[in-house]
Specification:
The chain is built from 1 helix and 28 strands. With 347 residues, it is mainly beta. The two termini are 23 Å apart.
Length: 347
Amino acid sequence: MALTAGFTSCSDDDDPWDPTQEGSKIEMAETRAFVLNEGSYQKNNAGLMYFDWNSDTSYASDLFLAQNGTGMGDVGQDILVDNDNLYVILSGSKVIYKMNSVGVVQKMIHVDDNLGDPRYGVIEDGALYVTCYGGYVAKYDTSTLSLLGTVEVGKNPEYIIEEDGKIYCTCSGWGADKRVACIDMRSFKEATYFEVMDNPDRIIEVADHIFVQGYGADYSYPWGELNVKTGEFKQIGNASAWTAHNGMLYLCNSVTDWSTYTTTNYFTSYNVRTGSLTETSFLKGAPEELGSTSVYGMSVNEKTGHLYIMTTDFTNNGAIFHFDQNLQYVGKIASTGVNPRKVVFFD
């Protein structure tokens, strides 16, 4: 069960990093990537995968189970890194985990039923802000996971970001809403709103610009820029998944023909600084299978600029396709679970 890998130290310390000092039951590299596998709804099969991002060597079992002796729970929704800790949000189980940098649980809390299922999070200044399906943004202390306060925003809020001292989250209303909520972090008392598209979902900040993506009234996955100074929203394109690096927004629109169950992926890119959209694929040497398998998530290693694209068939274990800083294909990593949705990195 143990992983054997060549270690590449990224620290200035003379002593090599020892994962066993953090309670790891397996050998781990210093360059660690963690993949959150969402699992399937009500299947209680969310999981955590680990691989060495310096070599793409993976541990071929559920890391959470290996480190903690129990399964993670139902529906892995989000994973975040802060101060050498991992935070994982599970919506079905209504649980938030705080783990150390090798995936050993340090703290676990159950989100109050009155708040509803927790969804996505953002960490800023020692606080974890989490959207909750009951219509709230909840604020937790990152050290203790104690609840510090809540603000009502609108039913079924989804993705959340911080920008310039404010919290922004999408309010989907399961298709009945079309707003982005804004909360001042200092007061943390009430929300103001911007109107975007029907059923908004994702929100991201790139080079001080805010972009919002949603399902739209016809499930065409529109996305565009929200100008929070003027309140104007301008649609730019269509995408079902995205990530960003160095002022570039990388997007994929997975379009499925449900009469034949065939999927076609359209990869586009957007230069935030110039406002130019490139509708040809930014990927180089991508394998043919990536063009026809649903893309479930995209993540970038900010240290290296490498891109990781996660795919799913919603039933079997997914896969992660790795591209280097020049967006040249490197290789494919098998996931250890269903619906891999996000990768985070330690070095």
